[in-house]
UniProtKB/TrEMBL annotation:
It holds the Pfam family zf-RING_2. The keyword Zinc-finger applies. Residues 322-364 form the RING-type domain. One of its GO terms (molecular function) is zinc ion binding. It is found in: Membrane. Residues 374-403 are annotated as: Disordered. Its main location: membrane. This is RING-type domain-containing protein. One of its GO terms (cellular component) is membrane.
Amino acid sequence: MMTIRHNWCSECKETCLNHATLCTICGSTLEAPPAAVVSDLARRNQDSAARRRTNDPPGSLFSFTMQDLVQEATQNQRRDLGDLRELLENIRQEIRATGVAQQDLLEEMRSVREEWQAVPAELWDPSIGSGSSSRPTSVEYLERIPRTVVSRKSSILRQGCLSCSSKAIAGCPLPPPMEVIPGEFGMTEACALEHGTLILPEFNRTGKGGLTLATKTLIANATKPVIVYMERGDGVTFCQKAITAQDAGASAVVIGNNVTEPWPYVMKDSKGEAVGDKVSIPIVMVKLADGQALVSFFRQRNNTTVECAKWNLRMEPQNQNCVICTESFSISEVLLRLPACGHHFHESCAMQWLTSHNTCPYCRRELPTDDAAYEQERRRTERTHASSDSAAGRSSQYQDFYG
Ligand SMILES: [Zn+2]
Ligand SMILES: [Zn+2]
Ligand SMILES: [Zn+2]
Ligand SMILES: [Zn+2]
């Protein structure tokens, strides 16, 4: 007997397989499919079961139908990868054992895959993908990757945007709204700072040596909330930059990244300088290109330190999913963040994958292995392509960019 799943979108007039409750196309709430659709599906299932029966050799090893398998795994809310692997292995064994009805089985295998699109293709079929993906990631490397516990301050549960609503001037277009990555210290609640003033520190934008008297005066005399822009690096920690801006009277600080990768980059109080709520303003980061766009916008307006209203900074909660299990990250779960690309996964989901693959499950970036011969060959290839972006990014994965 077939169980009726709530997977029908009445707007799109289609079954929507990729999401549990909402249509991924139009966002409508999914419901039970209309009777006509259900009976049509049942008829097609009967047809395919009948086809399979006629194709079955005498004494077939078929002890269950594919529908049963798919249904069983589909109803399993957790969508456990181990189950999925087992399911696929069962299908493969069926194909090998019977040698018939392959067309049907392959078709059904495809439909199972479609249903779990977020699952990396290699999981379904180890022959997919490059050979490098089948090596286990270096055990030492996996041990060194810091684990994080999701909390209310976690950057992964928050998102933000910096936008400019000043009057546009001919020949000097406004910078487009920018994604900001909230830091994990300072003010981490949702906030909306409207029509503020963005100020670039005079001379040294990294905050080294503090702010000049002119910049401090500018901040002190501003009639609107001030957002100070500073650049990452120069031996000044994120926390020190935030305190410098806060002490001068700023309401928020935007840090421009000084490298392109990894992105998104999560700013933490790595030296414990913010303990005891020493930082009470929000600190957010924009990517390198956006920071450069801000600076050139100010240059074009010929006033690097003079206020340039009106700027809006928003921070709000967001949901993010682990691409391996498709569940959203929630408070107190343990995550693993790959240092090279910055992608987050549940630790348990990631470890299951990384103990047999040396690639990021999301972006496929290669990770180090314990296979000495393979690593030697890889370093040789990397030197050959030393000028390429990916090699430059990869060599930086052990570096610490804090401060
Ligand atoms: Zn729809
Ligand atoms: Zn749909
Ligand atoms: Zn997960
Ligand atoms: Zn990645």
